[in-house]
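Encode chain A's predicted structure.
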Amino acid sequence: MKVLIVEDQLAVAKALQVLLEVNDLEAVIAHNPEKAIECVEQDDIGVVIQDMNFSEGATTGAEGLALFRRLRTLDPELPVLAMTAWSSLESAVEMVKAGAADYLAKPWDDDKLVASVKNLLRMRELALENARLQHEKSFARGELARKYELCGVVYRSAAMHRVVSLAGQVASADVPVLITGPNGAGKEMIAEILHANSRRSAAPFIKVNAGALPDDLLEAELFGAEPGAFTGSVKRRVGRFEAAHGGTLFLDEIGNLSLAGQMKLLRAVQRGEFERLGSSETRKVDVRIVAATNADLRAAIAKGTFREDLLFRLNVIEIEVPALRERREDVLPLAVEFLARGQAEKPKPLSLEARAALTDYAWPGNVRELMNRIQRASIVATGPEITAEDLGLACGSPAATAEPAEPSSSEGSSERRELELLLHECDGMISRVAARLGISRQALYRRMQRLGIVLERRFKG
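Encoded structure for chain A:
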């Protein structure tokens, strides 16, 4: 990408152009605001270096400020570096407050100017690359939504896109599926997608928390019971297997079943046969089993607490749902969705600090915790916006001090690179970096800690 120099004095413009080209930076010149706008519209401009005055006798910087506003309207993300004399310093400072990258005084320092331009170009390239990737992701999500029924799932991350894609792909296979992942990560939503895209979608989708069933109630709950089969049983009870006939049976928390319960379940899963409690009549059902667990079943097999033959029957296809801390891109879209589902006709927006706190938090309770915090915040918030304090994530609160999670290798490294460039560009001044990002200094410190960025302090002797 090219650097656009907007300078009415030919000698000054040429000096800047030569300086940049000596440092392998291609530069073009515009001698007035109209030409500058034309260049941005027609050329591949990565950074603008602009003077503050273009008319003879002008010294206030008002012309430069007006050009900057036009450039922001044309391309809000285009980095602009102001070149200012002392007389127009106030306007240059106003530009920076309005979103300009920085300002440099005339006469400029060659090394500092070149370093600033190179950093801005790198950041511009990263921003454009991220925008391209986001566009591709958005297109891929749209294509997936057109191909499958996604049951209202909300996500933006590549990790979750792979999970949802796999669920849609295997839904029609009509084989048992094991969904693994931590509590509250969204395993039930994946089970719903599997059912909705299967040939059984018009039949029942029956859910049961298998791990919460005590052994003495397990048979009656899963297989049903005849009248008089146990004390208090006065009428026939239809079990979950029978209720799910022709459809899908979702067995949640399968890893918490006792060995006795696992043995009773195995025959029904293996043959599709069972007897109601109190009956000797064998019944057959046609159900698809989708099981879910947050436990490591292979480790449980090694300990003797889970049957290997049952795992083989349940785990024809495994879908692993990642924890929310491993897909931080999903946090804000989910938060906005949960706000929209609230009772308020017009939900309050999230403040910038609340957004930063949401993305920096480790989310040990995953999506379920996020939903609960959003619901709480929408009720207790008294201001025009939902704050980090409303969410219970204000700096210093127990929630905010939870152990930060390591970012994923691809998303985290890109985020770290951008932040390091911004810190370098702002000479390590935390207040300036926080202002550029639109977050508080506390939120910035939390983000640096999460990304493993340590700021070196250098003192002049």
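The radius of gyration is 30 Å.
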